[in-house]
């Protein structure tokens, strides 16, 4: 039976269906973020609704919604008579994003440990993401690599069962995607990605809280603190 919306109320079953799939505006927002991460959209570049709608083959309505969404998240900036422009991601801002990510993922890892140790089969979800990441790295498809990297950490957040952390992490995820795009990627980086994530995966099953805290920070900040050392690892 098909349920209908009445008296301004949305049936719970319908709401659950809607939550599973990103809205068109969300998809447009993700496409814009991918463009920024790839360098197709540059800091300060003006985004024009009609151009975006034509390129993405959608109407202007979801484009307008996506621009408002990204402005609220600080990824775009708007000003009177100038429209929306891509925000500048300075080194200081990237450091702040990484710092916030470390804080959130330390909590997520702490809470996820029990789930992984209670049900080691759940670790297979991380293995599947790592496999996808490595295949993308072999092709030097850095957008796919970045999305797999995010999915790895998204799975840990989901395993944590901490809804607040997951919501805050998702709010930060688009910023992290852009940060990934700023990193220098090459064949050596491709070879390192799998082992880096497998190390964190293994530690979820056997390491102490202090060891995991240190690993999360090292994992996230590995390219921020000492790029030269990261290149030799």
Number of helices: 11
Highest CATH level, the class of the largest domain: Mainly Alpha
Structural class estimated from helices and strands? mainly alpha
Strands side by side in the biggest sheet: 1-3-2
Radius of gyration: 19 Å
User: CATH homologous superfamily of the largest domain, by name?
Assistant: GntR ligand-binding domain-like
**Integer average pLDDT:** 86
Tell me the helix content. over 70%
What are the low-pLDDT stretches, counting only 5+ consecutive residues below 50? 1-20, 226-233
Structural domains: how many:
2
- The fraction of residues in strands falls at under 5%
- Main sheet summary: 3 strands, antiparallel
Q: How would the global form be characterised?
A: elongated
CATH topology of the largest domain: Four Helix Bundle (Hemerythrin (Met), subunit A)
Could you describe the 3D structure shown?
- The longest helix has 28 residues, at 91-118.
- The chain is mainly alpha-helical.
- The model is unreliable at 1-20 and 226-233 (pLDDT under 50).
- It has two domains: 12-86, Arc Repressor Mutant, subunit A (Orthogonal Bundle); 91-232, GntR ligand-binding domain-like (Four Helix Bundle (Hemerythrin (Met), subunit A)), CATH 1.20.120.
- The radius of gyration is 19 Å and the shape is elongated.
- A hairpin with a 3-residue loop joins strand 2 (76-79) and strand 3 (83-86).
- The protein has helices at 12-20, 24-38, 49-56, 60-72, 91-118, 123-138, 142-160, 163-182, 187-206, 209-225, 227-232, and strands at residues 46-47, 76-79, 83-86.
- Helix 2 crosses helix 4 and helix 6 runs antiparallel to helix 9.
- Helices cover 73% and strands 4% of the residues.
